[in-house]
Every structure is written in structure tokens, then in C-alpha cells.
Write a structure and sequence with these properties.
single chain; 252 residues; mainly alpha; 0% strand; globular; DUF998 domain-containing protein; transmembrane helix; transmembrane; membrane
Length: 252
């Protein structure tokens, strides 16, 4: 709010723009109440994601965790951490795309052992995930060496990543350790890019403020990753230690 007031009084949206959208400010954008409000609202998803990442698991005695769970939680936190810093990573020669894929590869390997029977055809799911994120890494690296790569390969990698995430979310929903709200964040993270791209295109005529603000919802995937890690360490409900009082039968 302080940055918003500074923008309105100084006539400069630059500071507020960089704090909420993490992109270079459009110096030609007029300082109006609608533009300022859009920038403030666009910063709320990132603030919510930051709180979701930093709040940690619920208080209470955590369940006993085996090695597979501990490793998956670590990988989830690393991927979520990259999701928070990714707006500040400049995409020099595809660096951002490589780092994003690298942060997800461990999840492809570590999710199946934890999901167990709730994930059907785990080997095929792992192969689809490796095709997606491993393919992105290979695609970008090969292009760095000026090798001509078909654009269809990028579409195949994107489709494989979408399929992998859907299968993981389906398994999470049937696992029982994650609440429906966490799964919904993951679903929203899948749906939003398909909605935000045409919306941003339609709003482009209104200025970069509106078009760039739509991209702020991409942080929903980061929230899903962080919550998935938290809830693997959430305390389980303990049965009551008090035995029920026997009901005395009335004498005949």
C-alpha cells in the first residue's frame, strides 16, 4: 500500500510495478487509480504464495517419516523455492527454462515411491515426466549449440508435462494425505495458463499493466508444491486415549 501511495503521489508506477510484477516497468503507463489498483491486486498471489511457503507444516507431533518421504519433501521445497525466485531469474540463453526443468526432475523420480498404490503404472508416469522435463533441458541445451530443433519437440515436452501433472494430482487426491484444497491449487495451476494467455492477449490493447498482471497467477503451482511438502509432515489425527464409559443397562 505504501508503494501504491508513492506511485499516486509521485506519478511514477515503476517501484510498484517492479514490486508486484517483477518485470521492467512500462514508463509510458499512466498513473491512474485503475492501473494502481491492478498492480496492487496482482501482487496478492505472490504474497499469498510467500506465506504458504514460509508458514511451514501445522504444529504438532509429525508422523514418522521414511527416507522416501523426507527426500520428496526436500525436493518439493526446492522446487517451491525456485518458483519464488524465478521472477528474478533472467532468461539468458534459456537459463530460466533449464533451472525450472531441473527443479522438477527430482519430483518425477521421488513422487512414485511415496504415492505407492494410489499412482497406477508408476513406471510409465515416471517416463512421461522424464520425457517432459528432461526433454526441455535437452531442447534448450541443443539450441545453445545452434542445433536446429523442431518446434514440435517443445509441444511434445509441454504435453508430457501436462499429462504427468494430471496423473500426480489424481494420485494425490486418492492418497489421503493431502486435502482437496491442495489438489485444487495444483489443478488451478494447470488451468490458469490456458486461460491467462488469451486473456492477456485480449487485454493487451488496454496496456501492459493488465496483460502482465494476469501472469501473476502462475504462482499457483508454487503454492501446490509448498503445501504438498507441508502436508507430508502434518500431524496425523491420534485416536482418543479415553475409553468410552460403559452404559449401565437398566435392571429388569
Amino acid at each position: 500500500m505504501v508503494a501504491a501511495m508513492i506511485a499516486l503521489t509521485s506519478g511514477d508506477l515503476g517501484t510498484l510495478w517492479r514490486l508486484t510484477l517483477f518485470t521492467p516497468a512500462n514508463e509510458t503507463a499512466p498513473v491512474t487509480w485503475p492501473n494502481t489498483l491492478v498492480l496492487v491486486v496482482a501482487g496478492l498471489p505472490f504474497a499469498w504464495a510467500l506465506w504458504q511457503c514460509l508458514r511451514g507444516p501445522l504444529a504438532g507431533p509429525p508422523p514418522e517419516q521414511d527416507r522416501a518421504v523426507r527426500r520428496l519433501r526436500t525436493a518439493l521445497y526446492i522446487a517451491a523455492a525456485y518458483g519464488l525466485i524465478s521472477p528474478f531469474v533472467y532468461d539468458w540463453f534459456g537459463v530460466a527454462a533449464i533451472l525450472s526443468a531441473v527443479s522438477m526432475v527430482p519430483l518425477v523420480v521421488l513422487f512414485p515411491p511415496v504415492l505407492g498404490a494410489s499412482l497406477r503404472h508408476a513406471g510409465h508416469v515416471r517416463a512421461v515426466g522424464l520425457l517432459s522435463y528432461g526433454g526441455v533441458i535437452a531442447y534448450v541445451v541443443l539450441r545453445l549449440f545452434s542445433l536446429r530443433m523442431p518446434d514440435s519437440l517443445a509441444l511434445v515436452c509441454g504435453g508430457a508435462g501436462l499429462l504427468w501433472t494430471i496423473l500426480i494430482l489424481r494420485a494425490q487426491r486418492g492418497d489421503g494425505r493431502w486435502p482437496r484444497s491442495t489438489v485444487r491449487y495444483g489443478i488451478a495451476g494447470l488451468v490458469v495458463p490456458f486461460v491467462s494467455m488469451p486473456v492477456a492477449w485480449l487485454l493487451a490493447d488496454l496496456g501492459n499493466v493488465y496483460a502482465d498482471a494476469v501472469a501473476a497467477l502462475d504462482v499457483l503451482v508454487t503454492i501446490w508444491l509448498a503445501r504438498s511438502a507441508h502436508e507430508l509432515a502434518a500431524p496425523r489425527a491420534e485416536p482418543s486415549l479415553l475409553s468410552p464409559v460403559p452404559v449401565q443397562q437398566p435392571s429388569a
